[in-house]
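Why predict the complex rather than its parts? Because the way molecules touch one another can change local conformation, and only a joint prediction can capture that. The input here totals 507 residues.
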Amino acid sequence: MVSGYIIYKSIMVVVVFLIGLGIAAYSTYAERKVAAFLQDRLGPNKAGPYGLLQPIADGVKMFMKEEIIPDVSNKFLFILGPCIAMLTACMTGVVIPWSTPITINGVSYPLQITDINIGILYVFGVVSIGVYGIMIGGWASNNKFSLLGALRASAQMISYEIAMGLSIIALVMMTGTISLQEIAAQQSGWHWNIIYQPLGFLIFITCAFAECNRTPFDLPECETELVGGYHTEYSSMKLGFYLFAEYVNMFISSAIISTLYFGGYNMPLIGRFVTDPNMLSILGVVFLFAKIFFFIFFFMWIRWTIPRFRYDQLMHLGWRIFIPLSILNILLTGAGILFFNR
Amino acid sequence: MTLYIFYFLSFLAVLSAFMVVYSKNPVHSVLYLIITFFSIAGHYILLNAQFLAAVHVIVYAGAIMVLFLYVIMMLNLNKDTEAQKSNYLKLAATVAGGIFMIVFIGSLKGVEKIENLSAANQSAGLIKNLGQVLYKDYMLPFEMASILFLSAMVGAVMLGKNELK
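Output of the joint prediction:
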């Protein structure tokens, strides 16, 4: 039984890892297609039908390129930077509940790698160490532009992490649990948290953009001011890792946003049509991925619509608008809990 | 199994703590300190205090050490700009550190009693029990500590301002 448990969990880990990487790879393709659509162009269409083999071609190109390690930099830290960025991007996936458990021959198989009792805090811990990948890489490059990019990244991430944490506190006050599995289960039917926490959701998604270094918050790699930001000196697959980590992060944040605020694997009225619990849990995975893909599209949509902030505007937004707003949100939530007694 | 993990984490913590002191480059020192914090967080998990471990990683490794690293990268410290401390200061630091060590050794005296208590209550470090203890049994000291933090924050902001009106 114990070995079966370990084998099942290992399979889950590998599957989630591969799905994460696959979605990240095809997000690069989707991003170029979305950009092309929004700018009235065609986008990549040469490699395979509709350019579907483009991510594979890009991957091969990244591996084949010459790898340059600057002579003056600290070699170990230079290599460690992209490793940490990729590792932390992949680590968050373990607590996301993909659906309700599937029961086969009386044995229940939960579709979540682990439901640790610190739930969201684990996600925060991993996200907060993710910044080291950028900082170490930027510093070890021994390049002024890289260092500036790294400093910007760290200041930005710390600032937005606070507002993000405070918006989550309001959510936790309402749900009464920090386990992601329980939060998803509580939102069955139409009781999605977005209805009760609209302000919290707005703060959370904006901070998620900032944590992923996506436009309009992509100051750390802003090419008009800093050449390439923290990855100026990187080439070959190490650069690929940094770019790839961003897409994995985007996938994971979309999954967490869907789970926390948009009902996770739940969909209203579906219980009327399907009664078999196994079928329901498979449909749950489909719904969750539909929500995730919508949010990934939303990330791209914003990127090609809104221009980048100036750095002082970014800090102003983080400290003077979002932190007071999220504290206000906590107060409102507390008053709501007291008033409606739920 | 747990015992081997404990030995490994302790070894890592002590080794990286030594490396914090002995590495020449301040950035390397900070990175070793981060490893120390992670191994201490591992100890918390071994003690079944997951909440404490998570908060330790978020606050110390994730926020405070990032700020440390930020400042050190910004100042770009190296051999030429290293501040030279006078011998009196070094002596004072050694004496203060030694006294601190004596305090730590002194606190080990009552350790047998603590061992018995922790065996009785395995779930003391879980978030539900911690919340009960902090917000029910020790409400007043907890609120006092938060006021202390608030005043420290206000003080830091006031000191950071260029001119006082």
